[in-house]
Design a protein that fits this description.
binds guanosine-5'-diphosphate, binds magnesium ion, 3-stranded mixed β-sheet, Rossmann fold, alpha/beta
């Protein structure tokens, strides 16, 4: 899974990237030079894996991970021609960082801080970037169709025109109901407004009490879009503290947890992701999959050999395993089920794949 952090310049993108991935990229106030994208892997904390892992203290604990990319700011009004578009297209999820903090030294390109306006504008710019792609494709198809009939291209034209009409009235592709054929036809374009989107509001310190109230900045309930607040400045300071002090300061500021944890939860929900666990010879491991993944597909994620030789999946819910106290006891009590290839993996399943050579 890959997330790309993007937004207008100086909104706190790299600050959030550091918080999320534990990177220590220097935050510069006035550096104007375009920086190369930062790329890191972020391991996803999971209490369930921690609990399972306690039953197997000799085995290594391996969290699931996501890839995160942080790009330089996109100039106001110029998103559709940005050099970073191709990078944004590779994302499974987009993280749009929005400035809500005041700083007289950092002049906002629009002259004032107004997160609602910036969100609306960015949503429009993403729509525009998809429209540019569609228009150029339609031109090409029309040109082709004049020379030669092609039912395939006729169909594609029909779908693209349908989407274009929606985009023209401000509706993102993720909000349009598309059937399977339509989805298949447009997959190759990697349209930006088809991707799940999280608006991440970087609050001013004085507004930290709004951290649980993203709806005060973004009230619309669009399909595939979520909004979340964080406070880059304060959370960065707290993240630099150790153990107990961290907890103390989080509470001092009235924060329940770091926003990155909330972010991970929300992004899993938004992208329809779940986790299952495996207990290997040397390690206890969490795997992230799309909801709806079958046991057979899950086996393939671990290793093609396991998929090829798939016999059965031994499955137990993680909390049942904890209750049983050990795999052996769980098996003796009949708590471990045998499932076939078509079994749909559930969030929190602990799975052992039986396979032959
Ligand atoms: N006051 C305040 N300043 C912030 C906050 N987050 C980032 N900044 C400042 O904004 C500037 C740009 O931060 P950075 O994370 O590099 O933003 P980017 O350009 O979007 O990657 C730096 O000077 C930060 O100190 C915040 O929550 N509050
Ligand atoms: Mg940056």
């Amino acid at each position: 899974m890959k997330f790309v952090i993007f937004g207008y310049p100086k909104t706190g993108k790299t600050t959030f990237f550091n918080l999320l991935t534990g990177a220590t990229i220097e935050i510069k106030k006035f550096e104007e030079k375009e920086e190369a994208p930062h790329i890191r892997t972020c391991s996803v904390p999971d209490n369930r894996l921690d609990e399972i892992s306690k039953l197997f203290p000799e085995k290594k604990r391996i969290y699931s991970s996501i890839d995160v990319v942080d790009i330089a700011g996109l100039s106001w009004g110029k998103v559709k021609s940005s050099a970073y578009l191709s990078l944004l297209r590779t994302a499974d999820g987009l993280i749009h960082v929005v400035r809500a903090f005041e700083d007289p030294e950092l002049v906002h390109p629009q002259g004032s801080v107004n997160p609602e306006r910036d969100i609306k504008n960015m949503e429009e710019e993403l729509i525009l970037s998809d429209l540019v792609v569609i228009e150029s494709r339609l031109e090409k198809i029309e040109h082709d169709l004049k020379r030669k009939k092609s039912p395939d291209e006729e169909k594609e034209k029909e779908i693209l025109e349908k989407i274009k009409d929606k985009l023209n009235v401000g509706i993102a592709i993720r909000e349009i109901d598309l059937n399977e054929e339509e989805q298949r036809k447009i997959r190759g374009f990697s349209f930006l407004t088809q991707k799940p989107l999280i608006h991440l509001i970087n609050l001013d310190e004085k507004d930290i009490h709004l951290i649980e109230s993203p709806e005060s900045f973004y009230s619309s309930q669009k399909k595939g879009v979520k909004c979340l607040c964080f406070c880059g400045k304060i959370e960065k300071e707290i993240s630099e503290l150790e153990g107990e002090e961290r907890e103390l300061f989080l509470r001092e500021y009235g924060l329940k947890e770091f926003s990155v944890n909330k972010f991970l939860k929300i992004s899993y929900e938004l992208l329809n992701l779940i986790s299952f666990f495996t207990i290997g010879k040397n390690e206890v491991k969490a795997w992230t999959i799309k909801k709806g993944t079958s046991a057979y597909e899950g086996a393939g994620i671990i290793h093609t050999d396991i998929q090829k030789g798939f016999i059965k999946a031994e499955v137990i819910e993680w909390n049942n395993l904890i209750d049983a106290g050990s795999l052996k006891d769980a098996k003796e009590k009949g708590m471990v089920r045998l499932e076939g290839k078509d079994y749909e993996i559930k969030d929190g399943d602990v799975i052992y794949f039986r396979f032959g050579k």
